[in-house]
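Hey, quick one: can you model this chain's 3D structure?
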Amino acid sequence: MRLPYRSKLAAASVLAVLAAGAVLADPSPDAELVVNEDIELVTRVAPGPAVEGVLTEVYSGWLYRETETRAMQMDDFDNPAMVFADQGLDMWDTVDGTEGKSCASCHEGIESMKGVRTSMPKMNGAATDLWSMENFINDCRTNRMGAEAWKWNSNDMKNMTSAISLQSRGEPMKVSVEGAAADWWERGKEIYYTRYGQLELACANCHEVNAGNMIRADHLSQGQINGFPTYRLKDAGVVSIHQRFVGCVRDTRAETFAAGSEEFRALELYVASRGEGLSIEGVSVRP
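Sure thing. Here's the predicted structure for all 287 residues.
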């Protein structure tokens, strides 16, 4: 595709910045993530099968952040995401829908969700579709509670996914890419390495080839998703995994897939597999 002159200049500018390898070219070498002076989280692991031979070490995005941002996540009283996780905790016990049920009616305490976030996304019970956590939540709402489905990036959905993710904080991320999930994983990998938009950039251009470099004012991480949902300071609110995918694709000046689409669920599975072994941070803080 022939790019307009201005788009060529923009693409050249972005690629030049990526290639520059500016300051802060490495994640913080000595930083350790301990929340509330008690919960130790793993932010560095040896590469798993998905990135063996591609990355020498797997790093959480927390390590690429400024000292002040890292500190916010280390204390729940300072972490702005906890306000939204608390709202999700309240919703867990709230009756909604024609069946007169709450989440607790079937699952009892929300602590029963420990470990759930570590395996997401995964095949549904019938093994006919790959579901993210949002799909499982809406399946419960519509089929068990008789309630309306939440929109993927609605505040209610992000509050609930934050509260559920919090139950797995400190647990290692480990998704299944076997059986029926294998085709989804391959599809996600293809998307990860496909160049999109007028800037012709793939996920790998920023988060694999240039991880650690600066693009404008942003310190590029490996793009790991173990910290999602995350409170993004730029947005002054909680951001879902697919919401960030949408933003990344739009940054390439391409028409994006929709949050909740098959494409982004496949991409979520592949990216999750790249971060195998990192602790679920739920809910993290990012710039």
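One thing worth noting: Confidence is low (pLDDT under 50) at residues 1-25.
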